[in-house]
Amino acid sequence: MENKSWSLSEATIQKGKDKTHTILDTECQVHISHFTLYTCIAEGNESKKWLQLVAFGGRMRVHRHYEVRVYLLNNTPCALQFAIENEKKHGFKAIKCPQEFLFDGNGADMSLQVDRVNEGWSANLSELKETVPYLNIWHGKCPFVSFIFKHEKRATKDICTTISAFQKSHSDYKLKLKLVAKMPRRSKRQRSHKSESSQSERESDSCTNSEGSPASSLQSSGFGPSPTRHDCNFNPGEPQMESFSDDSRSSYSSCSCSPEGHHKDRRRECSKLIPHKLRMSLVHLLEPSDTLGNDWRMIASDLGMDTKIPMLKEKDSPFQEVLKVMEEQNKDLNWLVTKLISHQRLDAAGIVTTYLQTGEIHS
Q1: Fold category of 269-358 in CATH
Q2: For residue 159, which of 113, 111, 118, 116 has the smallest C-alpha distance?
Q3: What is the pTM of this model?
Q4: CATH 1.10.533.10 placement within the chain
């Protein structure tokens, strides 16, 4: 390699004890506090970047407050992993697949507001508005906003709300997040006990604010600590697709707000089936060879088929054979989604997720 002669510029002058650079024989390492991470360079003088907006929900209970958090992330797999793992610590789960938003680099802040919520929840919509500073988004600091709703009617077993997100410089360009979450069914043992009295519920409700309003929007700190790590420096290990967990938390769906939009029983049945159209969509995405091997071979390896990969390459459709082995090992589509996300194949994971949640297959 040709010898390089490095010289210090004004930007690399040391300030106090902070070391801003390291000079080696063949390279100069500059220490930075953040990385803007351009994900889209549009035509024209102004830069743009793609964001992904992801909504998380906490536990839903009768006559209690329900919190929704919306993250504004760089459109990268590591940013999504960070948000999932951070919310998992506080018992929150994804209630909507990531939605893309083209963010303009003109310095304008981002606004989010609740447009509607279904009957049975009390909320002052005029107060459910939040603003996220431009720099927090542009520098990829994983900001989020929080909205709180108060459950009022025992007969209402789900929440359906619409949240608009837009940049203040382009208020005509809005992203609509339609969020649906459903209360879990109580077990027979739980139904055999009497429900808590309304007085004890009020006493144990820790979400009520100091003004006593039924619903309020919080600053980006939310109830839990705001994430402070830069998204791509976080490596939590294998990510989990939180929206398909079946426990005492709320049940989730990213479908429209119609009553037929979410049926957990149907989703469980769908997770066992791989229709032909879905197979073909996955084959189309995963069979083309990837230079880093991030294709059908990764799923084959997850199934313990490493020794069979050379033989499968000779097949007309190797991933079809992999799917057959997956079924033989009683692995369902939820397992496949988790593996696809861990291998950063969000394109294929999104198709399977849409099928599990809506029954629709988009090729």
Answers
A1: Death Domain, Fas (1.10.533)
A2: 118
A3: 0.48
A4: 269-358
